Amino acid sequence: MNLKNIITTRSNKTIYRDGDRCIKLFQKGFSKADVLNEALNHARIEETALNIPKLLEVTMIEGCWAIVSEYIEGRTLSEIMIADPANRQEYINLLVDIQLEIHAQRSPLLTNHRDKMLRKISMTTYDNAIKYELQTHLESMPRHDKVCHGDFRPSNVIISPEGKRYIIDWSHATKGNASADAARTYLIYLLTGREEEGEAYLKAFCKKSGTQRHYVEKWLRIVAASQSVKGVEAESLFLDRIVNVVDYW
Question: What does the alpha-carbon distance between residue 8 and residue 14 come to, in Å, rounded to a whole number?
Fold first, then answer.
């Protein structure tokens, strides 16, 4: 495989283009189970009506796990938004439309979002009283079985030159409540310092989905607690403020 053409580099993986193939190469020692779970999620989402790159193989390259998929020619929605800031709201509306297409799908074998969140809450460093509150709060939320991306943001949408939309990075996919997925996207905006864009996103999501804002906000404590497990020091104070606020109940 040709690993000369780097598309992007992240903390624990590097993504390359090799002709018509995209190679996601994980760092040595990256969890085998997590790699295989991501590939399995990808394969299951391929069985829905969504446009996603085709999974080609899971392999090892020089002792590192790699997921190989179809390379999609185009620009991410994030790149398009940066190049054309005057039409930001139009692109946010498109982002929401694509997310609603995701939520319209069903994939029964995906991990249950509720189970994943319960596991994440148990892994946090919060005291037992807060953990119990979060678990009780989660159990009170309506149970749905919609496909949830789990990390939906403009950089995970590719628009081809012909205008076809592709959704990438299904490592966090679950089945569950669409508002939890929206709360996760909203939290991503807040954590990256794009509060104004996040507000525009949340308003568009609530309007297009017919969901009341406070219902999405009820998920914020849960998704913030889940995010805290990553142990990113720069995020900890902000996440703690959300987790310790009870106004979203």
Answer: 6
Average pLDDT for 55-76: 97
Segment 34-63, tens digit of pLDDT: 999 999 999 999 999 999 999 999 999 999
In this prediction the pTM is 0.94
Cα-based distances in Å from 133 to 99, 182, 183, 222, 243: 29, 22, 18, 10, 10
Full 3-state SS string of the chain: CCCCCEEEECCCEEEEEECCEEEEEECCCCCHHHHHHHHHHHHHHHCCCCCCCCEEEEEEECCEEEEEEECCCCEEHHHHHHHCHHHHHHHHHHHHHHHHHHHCCCCCCCCEHHHHHHHHHHHCCCCHHHHHHHHHHHHHCCCCCEEECCCCCHHHEEECCCCCEEECCCCCCEEECHHHHHHHHHHHHHHCCCHHHHHHHHHHHHHHHCCCHHHHHCCHHHHHHHHHCCCCHHHHHHHHHHHCCCCCC
β-pair partners for 158: 76, 166
Q: What is the pLDDT of residues 4-13, one digit of tens each?
A: 999 999 889 9
Beta strands 21-26; 13-18: pairing state: antiparallel
Pairing of strands 75-76, 174-176: unpaired
